Amino acid sequence: MTNHQSPITNPQSPILNHQQWMHQALELAQVAGEAGEVPVGAVIVDAAGNLIATGENRKERDKDPTAHAEVIAIRSAAKTLQSWRLDQCTLYVTLEPCPMCAGAIVHARLATIVYSVDDTKTGSIRTVINIPSSPASNHRLQVVGGILESACRQQLQSWFAAKRHKHK
């Protein structure tokens, strides 16, 4: 389990069980993968530990380049809370967010992001670029990486291997 440090680290909270919520995100990713989407799932939990929103990749199904799991979950959470400010919430996502999603996370003022697998191509929380800690970012958030990393990595690798095999 990798714990990516940010200026503020996020110790395991007694209220928020990182593995429990990541399991739910992993289940959503499975649904997305079975529907032909890159298997990424996301859940948002409020400060009291209540699930308030979920999302799964829907780019192909919705024909929408912004239909990433994180964006869908953020939109749903904002509607649920009747506020665009999600500053008391934690986002759990199975893959490190891309630049678009990292920007949405910052703009939504999420308190914490917990992700599973580093994305070596477009990871924009810590791996390729670091949008939350950038001088251009007007919000700082806590970051935890590596939760259920091997299970999420295996899911992604299996999905991409099956997709490559199907196209041969």
Can you walk through the features of this model?
This protein is of the alpha/beta class. It has a single domain (14-158), classed as 3-Layer(aba) Sandwich (Cytidine Deaminase, domain 2). Helix content is 36%, strand content 15%. It contains five helices and five strands. The chain has helices at 18-34, 59-62, 69-81, 99-107, 149-166, and strands at residues 41-45, 51-56, 90-95, 112-117, 142-144. It has a five-stranded mixed beta sheet with strand order 2-1-3-4-5. Strand 3 (90-95), helix 4 and strand 4 form a beta-alpha-beta unit. The protein is globular and about 45 Å long. The model is unreliable at 1-12 (pLDDT under 50).
The proportion of residues in beta strands is: 15-25%
CATH topology: Cytidine Deaminase, domain 2
Query: Any guess at the CATH architecture?
Result: 3-Layer(aba) Sandwich
How far apart, in Å, are the first and last alpha carbons? 34 Å
Oligomer: single chain
Strand order of the largest sheet: 2-1-3-4-5
Are there runs of 5+ residues with pLDDT below 50, and where?
A: 1-12
CATH level 1 class label? Alpha Beta
Largest sheet: 5 strands, mixed
**What is the mean pLDDT?**
89
Strand runs, count? 5
Shape: globular
Q: Tell me roughly what share of residues is in helical segments.
A: 25-40%
Per CATH, the superfamily is: Cytidine Deaminase, domain 2
How many DSSP H or I helices? 5
State the domain count: 1
- Order of helix and strand elements from N to C terminus: HEEHHEHEEH
Rounded to an integer, what's the Rg over CA atoms? 15 Å
What is the structural class? Answer: alpha/beta
GO molecular function: tRNA-specific adenosine-34 deaminase activity; zinc ion binding
InterPro entries: APOBEC/CMP_deaminase_Zn-bd, CMP_dCMP_dom, Cytidine_deaminase-like, MafB19-deam, tRNA_aden_deaminase
GO biological process, one term: tRNA wobble adenosine to inosine editing
Subunit structure: Homodimer.
